[in-house]
Amino acid sequence: MYKINRQMSILEFMSPFGKLDPENRWVKIAEMIPWEKYEPEYAKQFCDDNGAPATPFRMALGTLIIKQRTGNSDEETLRDIQETPYMQYLIGLEEYTTEPPFCSSSITNFRKYIPQEMINRINDEVFNPSKQKTKDKNDDDDNTNVNDSENNESGSRSISPNKGELLLDATCAPASITYPTDVNLLNEAREKLEGIIDTLHKHNRSPKKPRTYRQKARKNYLSFAKNRKPSKNAVRKAVGQQLRYVRRNLGYIEEQLETGSIDVLSTRQQAHLETIRTLYAQQEEMYNKRTHSVENRIVSITQPWVRPIVRGKARSDVEFGAKVSISMINGYAFVDRIGWKAYSEAGLLKSCVEAYRKKHGFYPEAVIVDKLYRNRDNRNYCKERGIRISGPRLGRPSKQDISDSKKHKQQERSDASTRNHVEGKIGETKTCYGLDRVAAKLQSASETVISMAFLCANIARRLRFPLLIIWMILAICFLQVDFFFRKRYQKICWGFYVDPM
Fold first, then answer.
1. What's the CA gap between 470 and 297, in Å, rounded?
2. How far is CA 437 from CA 21, 178, 283, 323, 446, in A?
């Protein structure tokens, strides 16, 4: 039967090394997450009267946090948990043990049972709490949390002032796949079809096995792959050869399925077969039309949901993975949308602003975005609600704009420096938390990894926040002391030069 793990304090953890340090980072992370609140929702996915007891929610999410922050594999993450009592306290164990609490393959199931929607809600609750509404009549005048309230008897609307800044941006989380080329994809499809033909022939027990010419096809592919700078004619010739091999193999499979059953194939082989059929149709269309683009182009047979995302960056014009839109409030990043197809992030500005108002009770004072968000529709939307949108104004500048040009330029520079925060947050997730190459193989698991990267980035900021406060206090004190001694030094010098006269 599934047993919910109780909330445990640091004093109850039994360790042969003595008491745990409450200032340890893993202990602080354990205090951030509301484990018990999400335990019932997590437990609903499991059966109460059948099978082994499921892993508690704290153990599952805590393990994912450890893996994301350390960047290790599943096996290395499990070894780290066995060796570190602080990690064992994070995942909810009551005492230190050298035995593994679970097998390394269970981490894959953790990513399956903790979807990205749940992680986003945890991230939003911990690092972007809503403004609490009190029922005290004395606080009603201060808590004007609704911007668009109903019209009163006089027909006026009570509007609370805009507060805060909302930063929006989008990035791509590349999947861990090889760079897709037409010849490589068709060669991979041919090899997988040959394995499917072998499986069907084994179960059908037909007297004659279909000839796939796999050795000749392999030889043709290697002769092309060894050419470092193939010409256009050589590429087209290689694509045509592999297309004919794939067409022949698909025909053999259709003949074998007429006399046999597709159930003899594994679930993975059946999925690969459907993907290869679509891949062949796309490659044949591009080959006949002499083009290099097609709608919903498949770039990976094992991960058919991955699509090319045109980014136009200096390192690579096209990236293959999920497109992620994020919003940043008070230094914390939150995932707004994860899409496997290219979309315009400008269409999310209104929904993000409305979500900000619904969460906090007022609109943001400014929205800091890049030029892709600054279309006419979004500008009019922000203008109607008194929201300042970053960037230059549209149209020919008026006389008043020319007189205030210096002020506008200062504001633009300030917004550009503020927008560096969201760019830095994206760089942090890609550098430290594995967002530059998502190694998960399933679509849901990849979305979980992407959301976990931003959750861990927010956790790291929360851990750094006390140090930032101490640094700011010391900096202010140093400036005051420096100002005092500077004035004192000026008085001493002034007296030294004046008194002798």
1. 52
2. 34, 11, 26, 13, 10
Q: Are 311 and 172 in contact, with CB atoms under 8 Å apart?
A: yes
Fold of 307-394+404-461: Nucleotidyltransferase; domain 5 (3.30.420)
Per-residue H/E/C for 208-233: CCCCCCHHHHHHHHHHHHCCCCCCHH
Burial class (CB in 10 A: 0-12, 13-18, 19+), 112: middle
User: Cα separation of 425 and 427, whole Å?
Assistant: 5
Which residues are paired to 320 by β-bridges?
308
Residue 460, token pair as written in the block: 């790291």
> Mapped to the 3 state alphabet, what secondary structure does 450-481 carry?
HHHHHHHHHHHHHHHHHHHHHHHHHHHHHHHH
Give the residue-averaged pLDDT of 232-256.
94
Domain borders along the chain are 10-114, 182-289, 307-394+404-461
**Tens of pLDDT, residues 29-82:** 999 999 999 999 998 888 777 766 788 999 999 999 999 999 999 999 999 999
Q: Determine the Cα–Cα distance for residues 222 and 214; give it in Å rounded to an integer.
A: 12
